Amino acid sequence: MTTLKPLLAKNRSWALQRRQRNPHYFQQNVHSQQPHSLWIGCSDSRVPAEVLTGAHPGELFVHRNIANMVVAGDDNFMSVLQYALEYLKVSRIVLCGHYGCGGVQAAVALPDLPLYGENSPLARRITQLREALAPGLAKADRIGDEKERLNQLVEANVLAQFSHLIAAEPVLNIWRAGAELDVFGCVYDLQSGHLKELIQQSAEETSP
Ligand SMILES: [Zn+2]
């Protein structure tokens, strides 16, 4: 049997340390939040948004799911996006993927997995991810080194989800209203702990 005790003990010691450093640490966030950024990342336990950016409570509005997917038909994701932009008025969105992503690996290997053909939420998401990665999969087939191939696909996934994000209604509404909003696509390296920018956009794409 497991208990909450270790987590509660760490929580109390964290809260105490914070108050010792700054007696107003918790008070400043009690009545409202004004996060500067919306973070869209993978649920992977090794990619904790606040920890790797050194952010404090109140700085990041966070949505995480398997393989940092942006799906227009996903009310959970879309409500977070709408709330962050329309109500919290964040001026920055960070979409963050990471090397070694199990979701991307599962999407690549899907036809060989027991998950394939299963009717479950997980199987549906991984199937959707594989579809989003289809163009990247064709290109990556030419890469011999397996690790390099998966790294390429992780980056291709960030770019694919980024293209969904900048076409999402709440994002377009902000840009069309002339408000400031910068959208970034990044990848996190588990080995170095470094975040790398892959792509950025600050206005609606105009067709050439
Ligand atoms: Zn992941």
TrEMBL record:
UniProt protein name: Carbonic anhydrase
Keyword line: Lyase, Metal-binding, Zinc
One function term, GO molecular function aspect: zinc ion binding
Positions that bind Zn(2+): 42, 44, 98, 101
Function recorded in the entry: Reversible hydration of carbon dioxide.
Catalytic reaction list: hydrogencarbonate + H(+) = CO2 + H2O
Taxonomic lineage from the root: Bacteria, Pseudomonadati, Pseudomonadota, Gammaproteobacteria, Enterobacterales
Cofactor(s) named in the record: Zn(2+)
